[in-house]
Amino acid sequence: MADVSNIGQLTMPTLQQSDDTISVNYSAVFEATSNTKNIVKLQNAVDESIFKHTFGKRNGVSLYAVKKSLREEYSYKSVRSLKPISRYVAFAIKNGKFQQITGHGASGTFRLNRDIHVSHVRRLGGLRKVSAQSHAIQRQRENKQTKHNTIA
């Protein structure tokens, strides 16, 4: 069964006539019907892969390297996710989320924009603080256990 609960919210394709040309706006319909959860997961995986490859380095990463790392880490099927990854990378370069290092579009090398890179580093630093605190708590527990387990 098709979900028709949000039928009033969807916008139908609009025809725009100007100078004997007709253009159809399908973007609203495509966005409403696309599976956004999987797209967001794929975009986050691509961002994470690019961050891992470019962290602490001056050079960028190619589209081939991103696809290869996604296949190794997340076991994405290359045939199914080949086109969406390329589209997302080209879109992110165009919008400024990725910084182009060499080449044109998705065919060159790129890295995360500096602002986004810094936010990833801050998030990573926060995770390191939490893990350091948890390690300190774990060491304290081990010290208490060794004190109680010693035979005097």
UniProtKB/TrEMBL annotation:
GO terms for cellular component: nucleosome. Residues 132-152 are annotated as: Disordered. SUPFAM superfamilies: Winged helix' DNA-binding domain (SSF46785). Residues 56-113 form the H15 domain. It comes from the Eukaryota. Pfam families: Linker_histone. GO terms for biological process: nucleosome assembly. GO terms for molecular function: DNA binding. InterPro entries: Histone_H1/H5_H15 (IPR005818), WH-like_DNA-bd_sf (IPR036388), WH_DNA-bd_sf (IPR036390). This is (Mediterranean fruit fly) hypothetical protein.
